[in-house]
Amino acid sequence: MRSSVRLAFLFVGVGSLPASAQDTPVAFTGATIVPIAGNPIENGAMVVHRGKITAVGASSAVSIPADALRIDATGKVIMPGLVDTHSHIGGIGGADSSAPIQADIRIYDSLNVRDSGFKRALAGGLTTLNIMPGSGHLLSGQTVYVKLRQAETIEDIFIRDVDGNPLGGMKMANGTNSMSEKPFPETRSKSAALVREQYIKAQEYRDKIVRAAGDPTKLPARDLAMEGLVEVLERKRIVHHHTHRHDDIITVLRLAKEFNFRVVLHHVSEGWKVADEIAKAGVPCSVIVVDSPGGKLEASEMTFKTGAVLEKAGALVAFHTDDWITDSRVFFRSAALAVRAGMTRDGALKALTIAGAKMLDLDARIGSLEVGKDADFIILNGDPLSVYTKVVETWVEGRKRFDRSDPKDLLYAVGGYGAGRDQSPYMCCFDHPEDGQ
Fold first, then answer.
1. CA 415, CA 409: separation in Å to the nearest integer?
2. CA dist 132 → 93, 180, 288, 320, 340 (Å)
3. What backbone torsions phi and psi does residue 24 show, to the nearest 5 degrees?
4. 8 Å CB contact between 147 and 154
5. Sign of dihedral through CA atoms 219, 223, 227, 233?
6. Which of the 8 DSSP states describes residue 43?
7. How many CA atoms lie within 13 A of 131 on its CB side?
8. What residues contact 175, with CB distance under 8 A and at least 6 apart?
9. Interatomic CA distance for residues 49 and 21, integer angstroms
């Protein structure tokens, strides 16, 4: 039975390139290229080498190195890897019930890099994620930005700053999720008051450090939570803020202005009601598109039109999965539904790619197919917004990380027995030499 399963799925995919071929340039020819940074290119070509894009354009205009491995992608579509600004895969476990604000929490301390969610994300064409703690706290901890590289430990997928530190934001929330019994706030006003109180403490902590001028006898005792909030105050760490109702959205804008921190609004179910205010504040929105009824009362006025209304108002719009709320494998559906509701096609494709990259301060590296950027891209067998289109391959930094022609990868793309097991498909489809199976 196992042999028959293998035979059923053995077909040649686009670009069966071994992962060890990084030192050899790879040229994809004949595809329709959607660079995001410009108009689609029919009969396009793209060259990648050592993890970077070295050439992209019309086939007639791209010089392909003589030693390049040529891959005929005729009939396929190549576009940037998708950027998910809000994901919970990896077995997250952030702040606990001890306090409503816990800025010292680092979500990467709880992540299992072998979680099957990472494989499903690759099957959906995702290459970069902002993995966050949950929204049950006013502040539930520090997020982490990751690339879906081959990994043995979580450190292997960190996106790092110039000093080698993991990049990430700060997760905050308001509304009913973060309201509960003491020590949590029971009203929206108390929620905002607690946030103000912590930011004022962070300002005082920062000022003590400045006044100490490097004198260790004058420095305050080290406080990890305050350090995280000071990074927010210094605009080094972006706040990713869960918010639904229009009044909660305005509260976030008020706090961001009061303490001068950078913020991305997430979900914004009623963002369409205050789109002009959001755009005037210059605050980006990461929108979730949920195509089934139910959920929480404060999201009852969620609409597919939110992306279109925000786009028209002039706000920067991205989409996110909030996986498992939306499965990473169907991320394209968010853009398609937004276009159906009036968003432009160009805006919707940007909302899957470069807009999210901008919200993570990563747009110089990812989000579009341009020379010098990371070779993060996907190969599709049709139009990105068609329900019939499938992700054929997903590449991260010039290495193929998902191949639909591989039966093991296909299992994570389509589900089925074994696909949810974190470590590997097991006892259903494939041999496991290590245990004699």
1. 10
2. 9, 21, 15, 12, 29
3. -105, 125
4. no
5. negative
6. E
7. 32
8. 188, 242, 243, 244, 245, 248, 298
9. 9
Contacts of 392 (CB under 8 A, 6+ apart): 13, 14, 76, 378, 379, 380, 381, 403, 404, 405
Q: Are 47 and 64 in contact (CB under 8 A)?
A: yes
What's the CA gap between 389 and 381, in Å, rounded?
6
Place of tokens 């995702």: 126
364: its two tokens:
């110089």
Q: Which of 220, 71, 195 is nearest to 140 (CA)?
A: 195
Question: By the 8 A CB rule, do 253 and 246 touch?
Answer: no
Give 265-293 pLDDT, tens digit per residue.
Answer: 999 999 999 999 999 999 999 999 998 76
Q: Are 340 and 303 in contact (CB under 8 A)?
A: no
| Chain centroid offset of residue 311 CA | 20
Q: Are strands 26-33 and 77-80 parallel, antiparallel or unpaired?
A: parallel
Residue-wise pLDDT for 7-52, tens only, equals: 332 233 444 444 444 789 999 999 999 999 999 999 999 999 999 9
CB 148 within 8 A of CB 121: yes
Structure tokens, 382 = 């049709």
Instruction: Please give the Cα distance from 229 to 422 (Å, whole number).
Output: 34
Residue 392 C-alpha from the chain's centroid: 20
184: Cα separation from own chain's centroid = 29
Maximum Cα–Cα distance across the chain: 72
Residue 31 sits at φ, ψ, to 5 deg, of: -80, 160
pLDDT digits (tens, 9 = 90+) for 206-230: 999 999 999 999 999 999 999 999 9
Distance of CA 394 to the CA centre of its chain: 15
